[in-house]
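[audit] Reproducing an earlier prediction to check determinism. Same input, same settings, fresh worker. If the tokens differ from the archived copy the diff job will pick it up downstream; this log only records the rerun itself.
[audit] input (269 residues):
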Amino acid sequence: MIFPISLMPVNWLLESVKWRFLLSDIEKISFFKSIKAVFSGITFSIFTPNRIGDLVGRIFVLKPENRVKAIFATGLSSFSQLIVTISIGILSFFILILYFSFPQITQNKLLVGYFIVFFLILTVLIFFFYFNIKSILKFLFRYKIFLKLKEQTSVLSDYSLDKLFVLLALSLIRYSVFVFQFYLLLIFFEVQISLINSILGISLMYLAMAVIPTFALTEIGVRGSTAIFFIGLFSTNISGILSASIFLWIINLAVPAIIGSFLFSKSKF
């Protein structure tokens, strides 16, 4: 149990590194200030759907003139994490279809076909948008309605391909921490499952969580049900799966939110 808990600070330290890396061209901040901003963002995020409040919660550590640009930079960070989540989830879905036979998933072949086409199109689109942000913004700025945001969104055009790849790499490392942390908790709660099968189940669960609108305060129920469905494909220990899911939510969201509220209350914002 100690090891999964010890991975919580690793997870959020990685997110702090990502955010500080993206802000390097907007405003230089200390590593401690970056950590404080990330925890404050978690506190704000629990009251908003799919944690979008995280975008606003972080910017209070920055100078007022840099806050709008920072929102777009933070959005790019979240988008990179979403790309990793969706890509690995889709890959896991294909592996499940090709190498496993679960009636719960494969009994409706037409529906599975629709999902495959949808996921392929989605994958192409998200990578296209991510690596062509500069061109897309240039196209949008031809219209007056978007031209008003040119100054604030210009930061998105400043990121080179190298930086975008580094951002994706950091997001992948952070995703790996999430998955390994969940796997260790499954083992702790005596869920008999191999590492490969747990990766497939957890990745599919995160894919579902990425597309289902939730509030962090109610996310625990959705997380538990999706975990039971996908990880339950490989194990019948429902109570163990649910316990691991709840404990992961406490470690990675509830505890950081409490820390963030304390840090924010002590700040002079």
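[audit] rerun output stored. Observation attached for the diff report: DSSP finds 13 helices and no strands in the chain.
[audit] end
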